[in-house]
Each structure stands twice: as C-alpha cells, then as structure tokens.
Design goal:
By secondary structure, the chain is of the alpha/beta class. The chain has helices at residues 10-18, 31-40, 68-78, 113-118, 141-147; strands at residues 2-6, 22-26, 43-47, 60-62, 100-102, 122-124, 131-133. It starts with a strand and ends with a helix. The structure holds zinc ion. Zinc ion (ZN) is lined by residues 92, 94-95, 97, 125, 127-128, 130.
Length: 150
Amino acid sequence: MRFILTKELGRLARWLRILGYDAQYFKEDNLASLIIQAIKEERIILTRNHRIPQARGIRIVVLKKERFKELLQELFQELDLSPEPESMFSRCIICNIELVPIEKEKIKDKVPEYVFKTQEDFVFCPECRRIYWQGTHWGNVQEILKQIGL
Ligand SMILES: [Zn+2]
C-alpha cells in the first residue's frame, strides 16, 4: 500500500516512512497534479482537505483527528492496516527511499564515537547519504505504537 500525503500531514508522512510505508509528501497546492501522481503511482491520498475532487481509480482518505496519536489510530483503522515489525526502520525519513546496509568500518568517521562503539548494524540512504542505526533517529516509535494499541 502506497501513499501520497498533502502538505499539512508532513509529520504523518515521516511516521509512515519509519513504519516502512512508501509515503510521498506532496508540498504543492496543485490538486490536479496531486491526483495525477496518485493515479500514476497508485497511491492512496491522505489529507485533511475535504475539497479534493474524487477521481475514478483513486482512494482519498480524509483524516479528521487533531492529536497525533489519534490521527495515527484513525489512519490505521480506516485502512485496516497493521504495521509489520520487519518493515519498520527500512526507509529514509527524509527521502522515502529504502535504506541499504553498510559495513561498520565504512562509516567510522561519519557517526559519533559512542555510536560507533555501541552499535553494530548501520544502514544508509543512497539518496541523501544519511546513516541510521537502531535507537536513534527513530525515537520512541515502538512505545507510541504500543500506546495506541497497534
Ligand atoms: Zn535520505
């Protein structure tokens, strides 16, 4: 399941990426090109905007909850989704691109010393070259998922 999110849902887009979903973030106001991209790439539109015209072949989910945890819950219920642990932390939060494992030796000078000493597994984004490791960047995702019953 792939998504495209309108500009007011930037935080949700990052969260979906953390959970491993392909989530494009659409920052423009041009609704026509939003719809074209959704159709072309077979993406579900996630938005707070009630005025997006329904077009054949696309699904639009209008989210209403204000508080972030409730918003996540609303989305997962609406789509009957349950996040899969094995896909979590597999995608760059910024670029929406799948992360690639990288040997520890290669990133020695690119991460803080304590991280290098305490972590074994590193992945990086082929697009922006950011390096990720367990425990950072992703924050307390699992904790929040637990809190909202996912
Ligand atoms: Zn990236």
